[in-house]
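Entry 12.
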Amino acid sequence: QVQLVESGGGLVQAGGSLRLSCAASGRPFTRYVVGWFRQAAGKEREFVGSISWSSNRPYYAESGRFIISRDNTKNTVYLQMNSLKPEDTAVYYCAARLASRGLYDSWGQGTQVTVSS
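Predicted 3D structure (tokens):
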């Protein structure tokens, strides 16, 4: 497994932007996929998007406001969130899985994002 640490959450007004970071350590990452998830209070966790460490091709649950990127030199994956809405309020998690597997088995501790109206 890899160790993941998220950062960058906070309070932002609607329409604003935040960039979350997911720093990875513990294993070579070239075969891993890193995903972003979020869970709002009282709701199920939902998939936001992912990016493979070996390619530069992100995948999104919904296109538009969020952008996922990575910096291999820093072993970090980013989630740039733009035009934020109150309904984006949630705890955001990054997770990792081997590219050959479907199960995310390494999770960060989560970072809170609160969007005020």
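Annotation: The radius of gyration is 13 Å. Residues 34 and 88 are 20 Å apart (CA to CA).
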